[in-house]
């Protein structure tokens, strides 16, 4: 990572309630414009809740209240004027289960651009090819772009999902356990893909795999009980964390 790695997203005092139940208790966390931050922590610690708050996925649920400040490249994510469709193009999300649409591979990747009104065939062709290349799946699918994405393996579907997100030229990728539904070889391919992308994008990945976090992330944030316990350089968190809870979790004593 270069020295000029500026902050792309600043969040402070983030609280979130499901009904009356407070699930996040005031998270302060910033992200640089390039590189991978891993969110780790026990089940129920608030990792997904926090991640989903970053592109306003909770807007789609009833009874969720979010407070705190979210500054994304100078824009207030929760400002009433923020267009969430636009926001989710800039802050794209990849889920645990690969979720291709029941269309061709080409149409899956072109989906976001068409939604944005792009019709020119050459522009779409180029974007589809570039996105599939960036997601390290082009060589495997280039002769079958018109075949259904549902015919691909889970790992291939996940890379197509990544290509679909990349096609709209996001600045930040959110990934919630993107390899946990995959076999080890496919998971390894996704890790390689993310490592290829890490110099160009900011990525936040939730993972239960400590070895995955240590292999691919630059920074690691440890969550517990709806709090951020600590965040830092991944090597530091794994070798010499500041907090006892972090040391206990890393050494497998709970979680
Ligand atoms: N839709 C929801 N309605 C009510 N409570 C919820 C909802 N989603 C999550 N919670 C609660 O919020 C807390 C944080 O959950 P969250 O899913 O963010 O944890 P997590 O760290 O992602 O866990 P996991 O590692 O199991 O995915 C938990 O207590 C959970 O039960
Ligand atoms: Mg989760």
Q: How would the blueprint of this fold be written?
A:
Layout: E1 7-18, E2 21-32, E3 35-40, H1 47-53, E4 64-72, E5 75-76, H2 84-90, E6 91-94, H3 105-115, H4 121-134, H5 138-141, H6 154-167, E7 172-176, H7 184-197, E8 202-206, H8 210-216, E9 219-224, E10 227-233, H9 234-239, H10 244-250
Parallel strand pairs: 3-8, 3-9, 6-7, 7-8
Antiparallel strand pairs: 1-2, 1-4, 4-5, 9-10
This protein binds adenosine-5'-triphosphate and magnesium ion.
Q: Any key phrases for this structure?
A:
255 residues, alpha/beta, Rossmann fold, six-stranded mixed sheet, four-stranded antiparallel sheet, 36% helix, 27% strand, binds magnesium ion, hydrolase, transport
Brief digest:
Helices cover 36% and strands 27% of the residues. By secondary structure, the chain is of the alpha/beta class.
Description:
The chain is α/β, with parallel strands linked by helices and 255 residues long. It has a domain at 34-45 and 85-250: P-loop containing nucleotide triphosphate hydrolases (Rossmann fold, 3-Layer(aba) Sandwich). It is 36% helix and 27% strand. The protein is built from ten helices and ten strands. The strands form two sheets. It has a six-stranded mixed beta sheet, with helices on both faces. Strand 1 and strand 2 form a beta hairpin. It is globular. The mean pLDDT is 95. It binds adenosine-5'-triphosphate (ATP) and magnesium ion. Adenosine-5'-triphosphate is lined by residues 18, 23, 41, 43-49. GO terms for molecular function: hydrolase activity.
